[in-house]
Amino acid sequence: YYFFLQDETVLWREQKFNPKNFVLVEPVFNCPVAIINTTTETGLATSLANMLEKSAFSIIKRDSNADSLERTKIVYNANEPSCTYLIDKLNKVFPPSVLIADETEALNHRAALVIYIGQDLANLYNFFVSKNLPSTSDK
Fold first, then answer.
1. Residue 77 contacts by C-beta under 8 Å, 6 or more apart in sequence?
2. C or N terminus of the chain, fewer CB within 10 Å?
3. Given CA atoms 34, 129, 70, 84 in this order, what sign does their dihedral have?
4. DSSP β-ladder status, 113-117 and 73-76
5. Sign (positive/negative) of CA torsion 52, 75, 105, 40?
6. Contact 31, 80 (CB under 8 A)
7. What's the whole-number average pLDDT of the chain?
8. What is the mean pLDDT of residues 60-89?
9. Reading across the β-sheet that carries 58-64, which strands appear in turn?
């Protein structure tokens, strides 16, 4: 999360909210994304979904499963044209081993792209967000 928020090439743009109905205006990525937390760390799917929604992602599912993954993986439907731009961006950020083209698995979650949160991302979250962020008095 920390690296994502600090890198302007990754955090493409914050969305403006409509003050009348508090919904995102002008979504950038129409690719339907599912986020699955595979760790015992509660709330990671919601936390990541909230952050990505502010960056114009279309999050359609937040869930958890019993499959515990050590490493985060992103599965996508290569035949989904709405995801081409997003996949291009993700290919520039993540190593090739993280991105996996698998239409059947993506469609099993009724999404075009599925982010499986692994223990590696949970550890980063805990390290940067939960425990080691400096307080305002640590200057």
1. 83, 101, 102, 103, 106, 107, 112, 113
2. C
3. positive
4. antiparallel
5. negative
6. yes
7. 79
8. 91
9. 58-64, 32-37, 113-117, 73-76, 99-101
